[in-house]
Amino acid sequence: MNLLASWKWLxxxxxxxxxxxxxxWCSARVYRPQLDALRxxxxxxxxxxxxxxxALQKQNAAVIDLEARAAERARQGELLQxxxxxxxxxxxxxxxxxxxxxxxxxxxxxxxxxxxFAEELRRERTP
Length: 127
Fold this sequence. Notes:
The protein is mostly helical. It is built from 2 helices and no strands. The chain has one domain.
């Protein structure tokens, strides 16, 4: 009887191992296709994320370039505006000087102003 009892204790772990192995094999057969599909989805998602990150980096570089070009155009615009303001000040000063010249006696003020401005333009355009 002692020998029979020892075989029972030996058979129980063997049966448990067999059942565990059979359960693992059945689980693998059932869940392997699902795991493979999920791994494929994960790989596609990672590839898409990398592509999106690359596109985002390119867009960021383009935005930085556009901002730099816009800043340069704004700086050039300010320089041109300062030059235009300087030229306008000179023209305004010349116009004020012409307007302050007294018109000849007996001549219409508008006609005198027209002649004075025409003379000023002729002087400016003469090299």
